[in-house]
Amino acid sequence: MQRVTSARVVVDGAVVGEIQPDGHGLLALVGVTHDDDADVASRMADKMWRLRILDGERSAADVGAPILVVSQFTLYANTAKGRRPSWNAAAPRAVAEPLVAAFADALRALGAHVETGVFGADMSVELVNDGPVTVLLELGGGTGAAL
């Protein structure tokens, strides 16, 4: 996730999701792997909403910061061998698409204003990273889950 002062997603020349927060917002680039499930999506949403990543050690929940959620399977690229990334660790669309939607819905249920990209589309993501601050969000407890 990235702390941003603005972010938007454009598909086929049209803006499909945009946040222009008053101060700070968050951009969530969401990758889904094979062992992720709805519980992981919900727990990640809660962690992101409450993570003290904004100025003054405040969270998005503290200030009502908007969140732009963008699916990005390329986060699970394996580049260990050769020069061509492998996407084997990324969950297939049938698994990933509903989990990205569940993540966005869980944020909304927590009270977040959420905008989204379009799953599987060729998206242009524009953002102004604030800080810059970029954080890999992971669950504790040995789950290894990361969105």
Can you summarize this structure?
Helix content is 24%, strand content 29%. With 147 residues, it is α/β, with parallel strands linked by helices. Strands 1, 2, 3, 4, 5 and 6 form a six-stranded mixed beta sheet that branches.
- Counting structural domains, the number is 1
Shape: globular
- Binned strand content: 25-35%
Question: What's the CATH topology name?
Answer: D-tyrosyl-trna(Tyr) Deacylase, Chain: A
Helix content: 10-25%
Total beta strand runs: 6
Distance between the termini: 9 Å
CATH superfamily, by name, is D-tyrosyl-tRNA(Tyr) deacylase
Task: Report the uncertain regions.
Answer: none
Largest sheet: 6 strands, mixed
- The gyration radius over C-alpha positions equals 15 Å
What does this structure look like?
The chain has 147 residues and is of the alpha/beta class. It has one domain: D-tyrosyl-trna(Tyr) Deacylase, Chain: A (3-Layer(bba) Sandwich). Strands 1, 2, 3, 4, 5 and 6 form a 6-stranded mixed β-sheet that branches. The longest helix has 18 residues. The model has no long low-confidence stretch (mean pLDDT 93).
